[in-house]
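Many introductory courses stop at the sequence. We go one step further.
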Amino acid sequence: MQVSKRFLALLEQQLAQFADRPDLRALVVYLALPGANGKPSLVPIGQWPTNLALPSGDEDPALTPLGEARRWLALRDGQLLLGALRVDADRWPWPEPLTLRLEATALCLTEALRLDHEQQRLGQELARRDDQLKLLVHQLRNPLAALRTFGQLLRRRLDGDPGNRDLVDHLLAEQGQINRYVEAIDQLADTPLLLATDASNPPLLLPPSLGEASGQSLTSSLMPLLQRAVATAALQGRPWQAPDNIPAWQGDGGAVTEIVANLLENAFRYSAAGGAVGLHCQSGSPISICVWDEGPEIPAAERDHIFEKGVRGSTGQHRDGSGLGLALALDLAQRLGGDLRLICPPRAVDAALPSQGNAFRLTLPSQP
C-alpha cells in the first residue's frame, strides 16, 4: 500500500524541522511493505536533506548498520510494523533535546501513517460497496420494469371492472414510488460527501432527488397514503378513520409524504391488534396533521428520546425496525419550518379522538 500526498507533505514538514541540528547528517523514513519471503521490506519514502540520494527497495545499503552513528526508530501500530525512521548523527547517545524531538517526530509519523492506511482501506471498502450497490440497483430495475409491464397488461384486461382496476392503479403507483427510491440510491454514489455541521447529531434527510421543491398540494401528497391506509386496515381487520378534510397547503410534498408514510407505518405496525388507526387534520396557523392509534401508549420516560436515531420504544421491541423512521420524520418536519411531537392520549389533540393511545402531530407553517 502506498502513501497519500497529504502524508508525504506532512513527512517533508516533519523532517525539515531538523535543519537547525548540525549534529544530524541524515534522516530517512521507510515504509514497511509485505515481502515475498513473509518479512517486511523497507522502502524509502522521504529523506532529509532532500538532495540525499536513496536507492530503492532492498538494494538500499542504508539497511546495514553503520557503527554507533546510525540508529533506528520503529514506526509501529501495536505489533504491526508500519515503517521506520533512520537517524544518522555525529554521536551517540544523542543529546536529550534531540532525543525528545526525534521520538516526538516518530510518534507523529506513526499516527499519521496509521490514519493514512486506515483512510485508504476505508476508501477501497467504500468503492467496493458502491460498485455492489450500483450492481444491485441495476438488477432491481429489471423486475420493477416487469412488474409495471404486467400491471399495465392487467389493467387493460380489467376494463369495465373499476373496483379491481383501481387496485391495479394503486399497485402501479407504488411501483413508481419504488422506482424513485431506486434512482435516489443510484445517485448516492455520485453525491460528494459533506462534513456534518454537528457531528453529534447530523441531519437525517432524504436525497435531494426525492424532494418536491415545486409546490405540491397537501391533498395530492396525502391521497395515495390514505388509499394505502384503507387497504392496510382492511387486511389487518382494524378500524380506520380518515380525515374529515385536508387543509389547503402547498410546498415540499415529497417531504410531507415521507413524514406521514412513516407515521402511518408505525401506527399500523406497533399499535394493538384490532385497535383503530386514523389521520386527523386541522386548518389554521400552523396547519396540523396528526396520525393516531389506540395504544399501547409509549411510556412517559421514553417520550423525550423516541425521535433520536436508533431509539425504539419498549412497546415495539418485539417488532422489526431500525429506529430511523421518527428521526427522519422530525428532521424533515423541521426542514419544512414545522415540527413533530408525540402527544398522549390522542384526545389531547381533539376531543373527538380516543382517550387511550398515541398521537404524532405534524405542524406545518400555513405559508411555506
